[in-house]
Write a structure and sequence with these properties.
By secondary structure, the chain is mostly helical. The chain contains twelve helices and no strands. It has one domain.
Length: about 300
């Protein structure tokens, strides 16, 4: 096979970098927008609308059926588990947490997904955790604790919201671990199935708990956020992997929570407190340390900092 020229490699690198940046921006914009548009609705309705949007995007972006990539009956139990953790529990906890804490703090707490993902990868798949990774995970955890201390000092309800967001990251980490055997399937079809199952479950829960449904305007906005921030973001991420490689794509996408935090601060117009600033620095140091470790292992062996499946 003919090796690509230097100019072709440069173009693919630029294209991959822009795709990865686009995926990070779309996902990064989702958290403050979810907080803005979900204030008048129940957490389960918010989760349902987000994943209806993601399912619609998955349906539009699904590829043609090919041998070895179509969903089969044996995939259903794993898809149900993935939908339960990633498309029902995770987004519902995030939506509830955002109603009780600031979007900027919640955005940074999303970095804890890397901690839980690494620990579950160690537990389920016996992945090696080197000293640098362990130190990185400790820095991220310390950053989360700093955010909790600030919220405890300023707002008793805020720490409850942060805990809910942290538990949401645990649910998404479980989603990541369970999604691994589905990685060879067409991603659009996986998003469609996961979104449909998750939306069905959360609608049933919302009706069971008699939660308030959002007005038409916010509901439409949440559908768009789900389609772009979860569905289209995943598509761009996967395209970036083809052009850019898994490790470098993950490196760019790892900064999505920090983009979320900056956007949240810009929208609110409030200068971050000492806890947000200190926690952000600790988490950023942890992310950079983690990335320098995973990037030395080569493509295909890196543990992605953000989600391996759409939110």
């Amino acid at each position: 096979m003919k090796e690509p020229s230097a100019s072709q490699s440069d173009r693919r690198a630029w294209r991959g970098g822009l795709l990865a940046l686009g995926a990070a921006i779309l996902f990064g914009a989702s958290t403050p927008l979810i907080q803005r548009w979900s204030s008048d609705s129940g957490a389960f309705w918010t989760a349902a609308l987000l994943y209806i949007g993601a399912a619609l995007a998955g349906g539009l972006l699904r590829g043609p059926p090919t041998h070895g990539m179509t969903l089969r009956r044996e995939h259903l139990p794993r898809l149900v588990a993935v939908a339960l953790f990633g498309a029902a529990l995770g987004p519902a906890l995030l939506a509830w947490g955002l109603q009780h804490t600031s979007a900027a703090s919640a955005s940074l707490v999303l970095v804890l997904e890397a901690v839980f993902t690494a620990l579950l990868a160690r537990l389920f798949y016996r992945e090696h955790l080197g000293r640098r990774v362990i130190l990185a995970l400790l820095l991220m955890t310390a950053g989360g604790a700093t955010l909790a201390l600030e919220n405890r000092a300023s707002n008793a309800a805020g720490i409850v919201g942060l805990i809910a967001v942290a538990v949401a990251t645990l649910a998404w980490a479980m989603d990541n671990a369970l999604s691994r055997p589905l990685s060879d399937l067409d991603p659009g079809r996986v998003v469609l199935a996961k979104g449909a199952l998750g939306a069905t479950a959360t609608i049933i829960l919302a009706l069971s708990f008699r939660q308030a449904s959002p007005p038409v305007g916010p509901a439409a906005a949440l559908l768009v956020v789900g389609a772009t921030g979860y569905g289209l973001s995943l598509r761009l991420y996967l395209l970036a992997q083809r052009e850019f490689g898994a490790a470098r794509t993950g490196s760019v996408f790892a900064f999505a929570p920090f983009l979320e935090a900056m956007l949240s601060v810009a929208i609110s117009g409030q200068f971050p407190g000492w806890g947000l600033a200190a926690g952000g620095v600790l988490m950023l140091a942890g992310v950079v340390l983690h990335l320098t470790e995973t990037n030395t292992q080569g493509p295909g062996r890196s543990t992605r900092i953000a989600a391996d499946s759409p939110r």
